[in-house]
Hints:
The chain is α+β, with helices and mostly antiparallel strands and 277 residues long. It folds into 2 domains: 2-56, no CATH class; 108-261, Thrombin, subunit H (Beta Barrel). It contains 5 helices and 12 strands.
Amino acid sequence: MQRLINILLIFKEYFVLALLIMLSTVLLSLNDNAQMRAVRSYTVGFIGLAQDYLVTVPNVFELNRENAVLRQLNVNLSDEVSRLRDARLENLRLRGLVGFKEQNPFTLVAADVVGKSYHLLRNTITLNVGLRDSVKIDMPIISESGLVGKIIAAGSRYSIGQLMLNKDFRASAKVQRSRVDGIVSWEGGDVLRMKNVAKMQDVREGDVVTTSEYSNIFPRNIKIGYISKISQGAGTLFKDIEVTPSADLIGLEQVFVIRAVADSERVAMEKNMTRTK
Length: 277
């Protein structure tokens, strides 16, 4: 109680002022003459106008909260749109692969690319299929766009595929239009080379190159790519031909392994003939 009295004594001027203001307000409200009614009317109008203007002043804290909510909603919607777009592209790609498999004359094993190794001149991919899926060494690897490479190692559940962009890759090839034969290999860069094509033979830029019937590993008529450049080297009997692969060998995600093995009798006879020579 003494503390309250001390506070009243310290702030007595303010308490007296507040008391007088309240008393004046009560007296003014009880006064009903014309002047006071006009004052009250103007006062109410002023207060109402002030409230209208104050309502239009934005609440900074409320705006910050709404902005945070909208930003989060925008992030969620962007993520959902991205996932829907990826799902649509995946669906289109898988539908294309299913159609390719149904129309292909070969017996195919579908595989996902689960690993990639790009080491200088030996570029390989790892597939999630192996011996238990009847995948064996030297089986060709293709995509819906054309030839990819061949199997060079096979385990129980996984296998390693040698890409065409590998210094050890070789394939007997044929120009689809003119039936000119050659050997396709890789010497670096992002294109292949078609070798053993004589200068007088009919090849043109834009010609499609496919595997030929002379290969022991690759079935014939698998698209390899198209001729992108032809040059005539001085002092040589052969053309220098660049072949751009038709398959996207860098962006591979799904491929097919052709369940075809080389004819052992043919391989043995050709090896014997080579030794005899």
